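To make this tangible, we now present a fold written out as tokens:
***
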Amino acid sequence: MKTVQNCILHLSLIEDVGPTTIKTIIERKPDLWSWDNLYHATHSDLIAVFGLSQAMAQKVYIGLRDEALLVQELALIERYSINWMTMLDPAYPPLLAHIY
């Protein structure tokens, strides 16, 4: 099972997927969807559910299928004992969450 943190990290590693797209996905993710569902979403789901453009949906769809990106980044995080958080973590600074 993918954690929300790992999903957000994975999205951030996809070329041309930035904070605005990630925030859109977070805000529009249906409550009944687990983060694992994002990995099983079709190109059409990404457009219909999250409102992504065709081009961005294609990038997200392809990027999430390349789990090597995430595995490599998590290995580096572990190797260098990096502490990290996402905007959904309770300790994330509230003022930082409101910066565009």
Q: What stands out?
A: The radius of gyration is 14 Å.
